[in-house]
């Protein structure tokens, strides 16, 4: 890679790293695994930087790399290895919002990775169906179906623990 291209790559990654870590963290639910996903994704980005700079939307292109890296990583057997049998210590709840976030995060962790990616991109990143389909490399109907199945599964997992049904119904109708 030419030094000018490399400088451009370094500037881009430096500026976007917090957002990429946030996306990977939302998908992985584990900061260490999220860092691994981001590292693999930015390595792929480095290798394909010339192609990436020709993309219509560089941010969407990089987001697609992160999501696909996460999904590919989940297919490997080592991703299910746990190094401890102790539950993860979550910070103490200081209010309803924190409790809600923790309960929803735990429920999302039980949803299949591709469905979780759809829900995170649709509702956390507020991307339209078209953009999610482009990121995941599937049809808009597939995204809509995954969204419906994911929300149904979330409702079943959450049960009566949270009063978020009106919010989910509103989000699903988008």
From TrEMBL:
Transmembrane segments: none annotated. Keywords: DNA-binding, Sigma factor, Transcription, Transcription regulation. GO terms for molecular function: DNA binding; sigma factor activity. Residues 104-152 form the RNA polymerase sigma factor 70 region 4 type domain. Residues 13-75 form the RNA polymerase sigma-70 region domain. GO terms for biological process: DNA-templated transcription initiation. Belongs to the sigma-70 factor family. ECF subfamily. This is RNA polymerase sigma-70 factor (Sigma-E family). It comes from Kribbella solani.
């Amino acid at each position: 890679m030419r030094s000018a291209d490399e400088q451009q790559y370094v500037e881009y990654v430096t500026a976007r790293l917090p957002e990429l870590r946030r996306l990977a963290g939302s998908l992985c639910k584990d900061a260490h695994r999220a860092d691994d996903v981001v590292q693999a994704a930015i390595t792929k980005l480095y290798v394909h930087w010339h192609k990436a700079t020709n993309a219509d939307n560089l941010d969407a292109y990089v987001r697609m790399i992160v999501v696909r890296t996460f999904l590919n990583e989940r297919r490997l057997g080592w991703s299910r290895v746990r190094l401890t049998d102790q539950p993860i210590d979550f910070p103490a709840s200081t209010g309803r919002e924190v409790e809600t976030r923790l309960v929803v995060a735990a429920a999302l962790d039980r949803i299949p990775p591709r469905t979780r990616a759809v829900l995170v991109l649709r509702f956390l990143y507020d991307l339209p169906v078209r953009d999610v389909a482009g990121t995941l490399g599937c049809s808009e109907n597939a995204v809509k179906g995954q969204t419906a199945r994911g929300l149904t599964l979330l409702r079943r997992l959450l049960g009566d623990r949270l009063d978020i049904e009106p919010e989910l119904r509103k989000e699903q109708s988008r």
